[in-house]
Here is the input.
Amino acid sequence: MKHPKGGFTFIELVFAIAILAVVVSGVYTLILSLNRDYQDQVAIAETQQAARVALSIFSNEVQNAGLDPTGKAFDGIHFTKSDRVPVYDSVTGKCVREARPAKKIMEASETMFHFMGDVNGSGAFDQSCKNKKDDDPPSKDCDRREDIRYEWVGESKGPGICRSSPVFLYTLYRNTGTGAEEVISGITNFNLTYYDENNRPLPAGMLSPSDLELIRKMIVTVEAVTTGGKVEKKRKLVSEIFLKNIG
Here is the structure.
């Protein structure tokens, strides 16, 4: 029996389709793998950027701790009770608003740092301007950026955290007297270690008033974790901050 001179036999066509299916399947698998790798890289980049932003915001503002151009800002009480940033009371375990004397560092723990600085150079800390926002230019009479409390909430509130419910976990908060506001979320670790002028580490936990006076430097560790891929990928940033206005 003679085969036709043109075209394919049924068997040849079946084999061709099978080979094509294998090739298409391989290409599709490759595209999926490349897309998954791309998404993982995007997630890693976003995670690293989140950690970098958190570290940058905190580090830049902490440089104002103890700022006192006139030499008069820390000689008494220059603010009213209602406008004060909350202070953690270790005796009652509650956060209170009290007209306490202004100090360069009001409170400090591994996850919280509360400091003051005379940013507008008025020689006082006046928080009485109700409508002023953080991004408004400094004025002679009021600046919301002069009394600042940072606090990070992880799996629990941690020592000295004044953020009331609801609490968003793994979030860095900032309070200038108008309530705690989210700075950035998705931060799985935020740790502060303090050192004295001899580079000796200070005790962990809520620092005592005497230990607060000894702080000259801090090391900030910020960490975020990328999930959703094959493996968790950690991104960790560490920064050393010298408190140039203290001491």
Notes: Residues 42-242 form one domain.
